Structure formats: C-alpha cells, structure tokens
Amino acid sequence: MKQFCSFRLDTSNQCLWRDGAQIALPPKPYAILSYLVDNPGRLITHDELLDELWPETYVQPQVLRTYMLELRKVLGDDIDSPRFIQTIPKRGYTFVAHVTESGEAKNGAPAAAAAPQAAPDSGFIDRDEELGRLQAALESAVGGQRQVVCIVGAAGIGKTALVDAFLRRNQSGTITVARGQCVEALGRREEYYPLMEALAHLCASADGERASRVLARIAPGWAPGAGTEEQPTASSRPARMPGELCAALEEVAGEKPLVLVFEDLHWSDDATLGVISALARRRTPARLMVLATYRPQDGSADQGLKLLKQDLLMRRLCIELALGPLKREAVGRMLSGELGQEALPEALEGFIFTRSEGNPLFVKAMLEHLIAERYLVRNESGAWRQRATFPETDSGVPDQLSQMIELEIERLGADDQRLLEAASLMNVAFPAWAVAAALGEDAGDIEEACDDLARRLYFVRRAGEDELPDGTRSAFYVFAHGLYREVLYQRQTGSRRARRHTRIAERLAQLFAGREVNVAPEMAMHYEAAGNWQRAASVLVAAAQNARERRAHLEAEALLERALRLAENLGEPQRRALEQEIRGEIGTAHS
After folding, report:
1. Is the pLDDT score of 251 beyond 90?
2. Overall average pLDDT of the 556-578 stretch
3. Domains, the chain, ranges and CATH?
C-alpha cells in the first residue's frame, strides 16, 4: 500500500483511502493515479500514459484531461497550486507529493486510528426492487429476448453501485460482461469510444479468445487493435460497420449470455447511440442485455440520448429504472454500516438525512466531513460518539461535494451561472420575479431562461406558479438539493450578494406597497444578508407595530427581539438610539 499525505493507495483492492475512509474510484482514474504514484517526481508524458493505459487503442488526449479533473476533485487538488498532480503544459504530468510504503490492516483497510470500518457493501442499500427488475430482465435475455435497461438518476444517487451489485450477483461465470465508460468530451466527441472500451474489456475477459475470433471473422474493423500496426492508416483500416458489430455480438452471446454495460451515457457520442439503437431494434432472438446509466437532463448532453430513450420506450424496446433518494431508515442503516456499529449517536441519522436528502454519495461525504472536523470521535471502547453540536445548515459544504458541484456548474455558460447564483439568494425554492429583481432584468425574460434551465439541468425543476399582488403570475422553481444552492451562494462575492439582496428587498416593498408588513420578515432577511442592519431592524419594528395593533402580542415580541439582535451590529451612536426605540416598543408590547 502506497501512502501520500493523508491518502493511501490500496493496490491489492484497487481503491483509495483517506484517513481510514474508503474512496471508490472508477477503473481508469484508479489506473492513472496508480501509474503516477508508481512514478513520483518525474514527468509522465501524455503519450506514455496513453500507451500504458490504452495499448493498441487510439484515444484522444483530451480524455486524459477529463480523468485528471476527476482525480483532482477526489484529491482536493488545485491545478494552480498543486499538492499532488502538477500539469506540465503541452507535455504531461508529474506526481509531486512524497510517496512512501505503508502497512495494511486486516482486510486491506489502512491502519488508521480514527477510521470507520465499512462493510464491503455498506454504501449499497435499499435497492432490492431495482435489483429484482434487473434480474428479471437478465432472465428474459437468457431466454433469447434481447433487453435494453436504462438506469437514470442524479449524480451520486447510486447508479454504478446498483450495476456493481447486480453483476456481483451474477459473477459465477454464467454470463459474459463487457463494460465501457463514456467520458465528458472537452472538444469533439470521439466516435464509438465507450464501445471500443467495452470490446477491449470483452476481449481481455475469460471469454476473450472466442470473442476476438468472432470479431476478426465477422466485424474486423471493430477488433481491438485493428489498424494499429498491420493497418497503420485510416484508409487501409477495415470500416466499422454497425451491422457487422451487432451480428458479431449476437454470435458471442449465443454460447453465453452477454451483458454490455455503458456508464454515463449522457456523455456518449451519437455513433454509439446508433449502435445501441440497432441492438435494441434487431428482431432476431439474442441472449443479449444492454445496461446503461445516465443522468436526467444533463446540461452537457445533446438531444440524441433523450430522443433515443423516448423512441425505445414508446416501442417497448427499453426498460427505465429511475433511482430516487434513500429513505431516512435506509440512511440510518447505511450509516451503521459505514461506522461499523448498530447504535448511532442520537442526532446523527436525522442530521445526515436532512443535509444529504437521501443521496448516498452525499451521505458518505457528510459523514466523512463530521469525522474530519471531529464532530464525531471514538470513545474509550472504540464506538463512535458525538463530541459537539452538529454544524448549522448554511455552515458550508464538504470539500468533496463542493468540488463535484463546482465542476457541474463550471460546465455551464456564463449566463446560466449568473442566473443560478441569483436564484440561490432566495432559498431552495426561488421565484422568477426575485431572480429578475436581483439581476435588474425583465421578469418575463428571466422566467423563460429559468424554464430553459429546468429543461436542461437535473438539479433545477419548475414547481408551480404564484399570483403576485398586482395580479400577474410568476413561476417558481426549486433546486433538487440544498447543497447546490449553498455552493452557488458561496461562490459569489460579498458585495455582489449585498447588491442583489437589496434589490430583492426593494422589489418586495414595491410589490406589497401599502402592505409591506405582510412580507417584513422576508425583507428583513434580505437587508440583513446585505449587511444593512439599520434597514432590517426598522422593517421588523414596523411589522411589530402592526402585529400589536392586531393584538398579536407574541408575534410582535418575537419580531422586536430579532430587531434587537440585529441592532447589535451597528456602531455605538446608532445602536444606542435604535436599541432604546426597540426596548420602548417591547415595553409597550408587554403592557
């Protein structure tokens, strides 16, 4: 096991550990990291990495950049100030961290003192129904009825974990598995990339010798390595004919059922989608199953996948499994598995469920964050206990999640990012008029832009309409997860947030002119966020006076107490005068 800083690279189990917590890495990112760690301190050129990890296969160099982004996200590395992977422009990469050999504890887990010992399948839970449907589809494929199954869900919801669990259940050698990974293209997408990776996986498997012979005889253009040495030029390379590939795969599946797995199909090229479409539509019996995972409405994807899925579903040639968040009880069981103990600290399950909203990746990241910040510690007997009160909702996002969300946001255009940042000033739910007010733009134009975002992004959706006091209607939207809203809020400068909060408060006053007291708490919240303590307190005092006139004395007292707390932020002369006014109002409310 190789160690660098707080990380340990487990070469036996091909995974990464940090402070005793296991971090799952897909095969290619793990292979890249392993090669870099094996060669620390020296330049690894692009060509060397490509030759080592994709021998006899042409791969665009930009694929490396995508995997490097993923590795930096996992390691928490900064491309401008690298602690682990330094980019040498136009040449390659150097692993700059100091690497040492470390011992291994039982079962390959690193010997860390304060690490939760996770069960092998602790991150996979509460998916029995989905596993049953996958198993039924496989049985149909074994009977000769070809199957296409799409697993759809948000980032971190457990799509890959479901696929892995399904394949583990069927790893007795009764099926052949070929697996390909789609990658986000930074330029033009390479045709058939995930297909070629799946074919290379197939030909390297236990059934690879026969598969290679079938491909060479029926579909020579698809054989891994075709055109590398014997046929060095594109003009002499056998053409890749989708029909030939379909026929070859069907013959391979004739001896043993074949499962083709394509992950992150939202990043696929149209040519690969065309082959999947052909495999689904062919009418001859085949013991073949195509299993694809993708995110819904991914902003980086074009319409190809959406059109293909809709067409196959309409023709009943495809099954769609939509993965939702885990329930609170399942989150509790997952935490028990991660911590290795049945009894959890009293407030842990509720806190993590609320913050993660049932997303398995977020559950793990929040748990790691609490351990790293020592909100959770071990007692004398080795059991985990709560050492301090868990942080408030808006106290920040764990680094791992923040970097993942930042990556998704950075893929969007500047106008989209600007709109989403303004939306985050409200709450998880945000109305179009408030976004328009924050940006100083037309409400109709902003509503159309929000509708467009809701169609393209899986983490924003339209939730309904509100009628405003002037009789007009305005749509409102919600973030799929509160953590997205927090990252978008924190990435804005303080001065920009202050200007936008002030505009929203002023727009509220315009909309409710003559009835401002009805929205005083909301106005005060925006003035407070803008740092305008005097205005925020004055709004609350006016609302308290109205509440007192309505004989709502408890409401008036609560508003005044909040105003008194805000007054503490003012300078001495202003604070003394405002406090005197508020205490007078409190005395009147009491009397």
Report:
1. yes
2. 86
3. 1-115 (1.10.10.10), 128-226+239-322 (3.40.50.300), 399-590 (no CATH)
